[in-house]
Design goal:
Aminopeptidase i, Domain 2; binds cobalt (II) ion; about 425 residues; six-stranded antiparallel β-sheet; Aminopeptidase; alpha/beta; about 30% strand
Length: about 425
């Protein structure tokens, strides 16, 4: 399972590539692409996917008969990185560097002295317009060098990194004739003069590895969950199911989700509405189905750090290979409540998968994630879960080797269930 995960991560250096690769996996499994600008004609028993901005994707399977609600997972395809600015090249006659800005909140030090590459999308001119094309240089193409300890004796005493000064990567000595744009153009099989503009990002080009009980790789947050949910979604086909399984992969979680394709957008709402209407349902049908739906918001969690166990709450310490982490937060940064937690625990029980409870230390603010943000557009029972990992937002993160499979197993069971809510405050997963 982890070999497959590492392949998925390698194919997904940016959210555009994550969506493109996920779409390929779905097509290979018989899913059909539908577009937001077309009329939708959906057939019972068939699977579909729709993308927005090429960087978010929602896939679903239409059940053969009527269905009660949507059983959904959401994870994110973006990771903290450096975006290459519009006028990219800085030259001092001896080095060519790239002008970059931060995308999300990374651990800057982990980006230094690493082989980096560049990927994203470019807009290529064509008659009457342009087309969006993916590009991935793949080879090592950039590096952000540290300052030698001899020149900065305080380097081990707590560094601060100014992104404008410390983080621009070198790309060459400037001696050759090939320009940065030449390189991008040839990797995308385009003419340099046809490139109108770009969305390009640095990425850590090191391959992920399995070692001992662990896996270490770039972008485990959140591609470990994105991959596991996808695998479960594809594996969970079942004939007599009375729910509609939905798989969501959102962009822009690392910058707050408030974009046209992020979890705060109308994307999920639009897709669910249109599914119900395309199947001849009414507005009331949509609302009834959402009331019987369940969302698992999947985003990685903080494992207890062996050198710094003091950062974890003593009663809510979670470990790699300890199973799925259910995340709690009184202020609802995590959506989990007793109802959604109980439902998800039953799923894990049936899958034979261990789970563990996480909450931040009461004196430490935590992060937020997709669940509560998605609920502002589509409001439904939601649980926040993840897999325990170390060094979140490092350019090379570490997680448990057993946990990927745990999540695949639990979500495979989840996707085959439907939720029934009784008048007496009872909940059943059937
Ligand atoms: Co995340």
């Amino acid at each position: 399972m982890n070999k497959e995960l590492l392949k998925y991560i390698k194919a997904s250096p940016t959210p555009y590539h994550a969506v493109s690769h996920t779409a390929t996996v779905l097509r290979e499994n018989g899913y059909t692409e539908i577009r937001e600008n077309d009329e939708w004609k959906l057939e019972a028993g068939k699977g579909y996917y729709v993308t927005r901005n090429g960087s978010s994707l929602i896939s679903f399977r239409v059940p053969k008969g009527d269905f009660d609600g949507f059983m959904m997972t959401a994870s994110h395809g973006d990771s903290p990185t450096f975006k290459i600015k519009e006028n990219p090249v800085i030259s001092d006659g001896k080095y060519l560097r790239l002008s970059v800005e931060k995308y999300g909140g990374m651990l800057c030090s982990t980006w230094l002295d690493r082989p980096l590459s560049i990927a994203g999308r470019i807009m290529v001119r064509k008659e009457n317009g342009f087309e969006s094309r993916l590009v991935d240089l793949k080879d090592v193409s950039a590096l952000i060098p540290n300052v030698a300890i001899h020149m900065n004796r305080n380097a081990n005493d707590g560094m601060s990194y100014n992104p404008a000064i410390d983080m621009p990567p070198i790309i060459s000595s400037g001696a050759g004739t090939e320009t940065f744009l030449d390189k991008i153009a040839s990797a995308a099989d385009a003419k340099k003069e046809d490139i109108i503009t770009t969305d390009l990002f640095l990425y850590n080009s090191q391959d992920g590895i399995e070692w001992g009980d662990f896996i270490s790789s770039p972008r485990l947050d959140d591609l470990q969950c994105a991959f596991s949910a996808l695998r479960a979604f594809v594996d969970s086909e079942k004939d007599d199911v009375k729910n509609m399984p939905v798989y969501c992969l959102f962009d822009n979680e690392e910058v707050g989700s408030r974009t046209k394709q992020g979890a705060a957008s109308t994307f999920l709402y639009d897709v669910l509405c249109r599914i119900v209407f395309a199947l001849d349902g009414s507005d009331e049908d949509y609302r009834r189905k959402v009331a019987s739906s369940f969302l698992v918001s999947c985003d990685n969690a903080h494992a207890s750090h062996p050198n710094h166990p003091e950062y974890s709450d003593k009663n809510h310490t979670v470990y790699m290979n300890g199973g799925i982490v259910i995340k709690y937060n009184a202020n609802q940064q995590y959506t989990t409540d007793a109802v959604s937690s109980a439902l998800f625990r039953l799923v894990c029980e049936e899958a034979g998968v261990p789970c563990q409870s996480y909450a931040n230390r009461a004196d430490m603010p935590g992060g937020s994630t997709l669940g509560n943000i998605a609920n502002t557009q589509v409001s439904l029972n939601t649980v926040d879960i993840g897999l325990a990992q170390l060094a979140m937002h490092s350019s090379f993160e570490t997680a448990g080797a057993l946990d990927t499979e745990y999540l695949v197993r639990a979500l495979t069971v989840f996707y085959k269930k439907h939720l029934s809510i009784g008048q007496d405050n009872s909940y059943e997963l059937i």
